[in-house]
Design a protein that fits this description.
By secondary structure, the protein is of the alpha/beta class. The chain has 16 helices and 15 strands. The strands form 3 sheets. A 7-stranded mixed sheet has the order 4-10-9-8-7-5-6, sandwiched between helices. β2 and β3 form a beta hairpin. The radius of gyration is 21 Å and the shape is globular. The structure holds pyridoxal-5'-phosphate (PLP). Pyridoxal-5'-phosphate (PLP) binds next to α5. Pyridoxal-5'-phosphate binds next to α5.
């Protein structure tokens, strides 16, 4: 099983057999409130009829069309709908099947872009400590989670990392953006000075680092990264696999922070988690740079058998319609205050050393048990599950990101479930 304690799991399996709106049903018939939107992806809640029907209809009408040298209307329609909601300046779309594939695609676009522009010496990629960019080789190379990297050899060469921005000593219990740490963006200048800008292709960051435990950027940090990258001709890639599609209360993290990257990486919420699909959005400048040479020649040697798959495209279109009709891409902003207040009511509960929040994302960091890191949070996860709440843990951090349809009373219920779990564990 992926990213699972396999032996522990097989001794006491946790199985879902059905889901509707905010709840899962377990194989023993219990209802579990979804505090994590599945894996940060079921933004509109579960089993939404419009999406389910669109999938069934598309499968019957056009099940598959070759992705190479052939097309079908829904993929183009979806690309256009994405451009409509994306930040101004991101005008072209490449489809993938996951966040990891979107990351690889973005990194390859960045390298090839510089090459077609005649700057083929720009081969370095800059990531960040504690970043999660999926599990493929490019992603773990620019990523910064030690356990995801250490077993897999030397990874990509020519990668450097900025420091992460998590600072418990100065920023614990911040509401929204932490106050301290803007200067950490200047570490990028140091890295540029070390390698020289002419060797650097791109910087990739998650606007809010999710999987590593919800690390929220200090105020002004992303704007400063944008200034530095622009100054040096380095592409800025936002990995919005989690922050995309309304998670922060805006359509994308780029909107929340008012910073437009050159490339935006998405997946997860694109199809509400139902069908694997990702999308990478790029600026017209990047797209146009590839459109040269003889017209019968492929411009970018990359793609997947299932890029823009018809059924996935239909699911994504129905998902975007659902988001639009229900105002879900901005509903997080309306709920953010209630979410923040509820989460911060956990201050003072056993083991809690930090609480942080932004949009409809929150984290509760626990003091680790000495010599047994991750055990305490895992116990809280198991306890919460037993009592009817799905939360996620990474290290000793509880992360929560409910479907964007959550009600105020369900927020209270979820947070009280976590409170009870914290009070019942060692
Ligand atoms: C920021 C980010 N990038 C990439 C990924 C990888 O996505 P996937 O698991 O769909 O490959 C994730 C998954 O959590 C993510 O959070």
């Amino acid at each position: 099983m992926p990213f699972t304690a396999n032996r522990q799991y097989k001794k006491a399996p946790r199985m879902f057999v059905a889901a509707k709106d905010m709840h899962y049903t377990t194989n023993d018939g219990r209802q579990v409130l979804d505090g994590t939107a599945g894996l940060w992806c079921v933004n509109a809640g579960h089993a939404r009829p419009r999406i389910v029907e669109a999938i069934a209809k598309q499968a019957a009408e056009l099940d598959y069309a070759p992705a190479f040298q052939m097309g079908h209307p829904k993929a183009f329609e979806l690309a256009n709908r994405l451009v409509d909601i994306a930040p101004e300046g991101l005008d072209h779309v490449l489809f993938t099947n996951s966040g990891s594939e979107s990351v690889e695609t973005a990194l390859k676009v960045a390298l090839a872009y510089h090459r077609v522009k005649g700057e083929g010496a720009r081969t370095r990629l800059i990531g960040r400590e504690r970043a999660y960019h999926g599990v493929n080789f490019g992603g773990i190379s620019v990523g910064g989670i030690v356990t995801n990297r250490k077993m897999f050899g030397t990874l990509l060469s020519g990668v450097d990392h900025m420091p992460h921005t998590h600072n418990l000593a100065k920023n614990a219990f911040s509401r929204g953006l932490p106050e301290h740490g803007l200067d950490l963006a200047d570490e990028l200048e140091r890295i540029v000075t070390l390698h020289d800008a002419s060797t650097i292709a791109a910087v990739i960051v998650e606007p809010v680092a999710g999987s590593t435990g919800v690390l929220i950027p200090p105020a002004g940090y992303l704007k400063r990264l944008r200034e530095i990258t622009k100054k040096h001709g380095i592409l800025l890639i936002f990995d919005e696999v989690i922050t995309g599609f309304g998670r922060l209360g805006t359509p994308f993290g780029a909107d929340y922070f008012d910073v437009v990257p050159d490339i935006m990486v998405t997946a997860k919420g694109l199809t509400n988690g139902i069908i694997p699909m990702g999308a990478v959005m790029v600026s017209a400048e990047i797209h146009d740079a590839f459109m040269q040479g003889p017209e019968h020649v492929i411009e970018f040697f990359h793609g997947y058998t299932y890029s823009g798959n018809p059924v996935a495209s239909a699911a994504a279109l129905a998902t975007l319609e659902t988001y639009k009709e229900e105002g879900l891409l901005t509903r997080g902003a309306e709920m953010a205050k209630a979410w923040e207040d509820a989460l911060h009511s956990l201050k003072g509960e056993p083991h809690v050393i930090d609480i942080r929040n932004i949009g409809l994302v929150g984290a509760i960091e626990l003091e680790p048990i000495a010599g047994q890191p991750t055990k305490r949070a895992f116990s809280a996860f198991l306890k919460a599950y037993e009592t009817g709440y799905l939360i996620r843990t990474t290290g000793d951090i509880i992360a929560m990101s409910p479907p964007l349809i959550i009600s105020e009373s369900q927020i209270g219920e979820l947070v009280d479930g976590v409170r009870a779990a914290l009070r019942s564990i060692d």
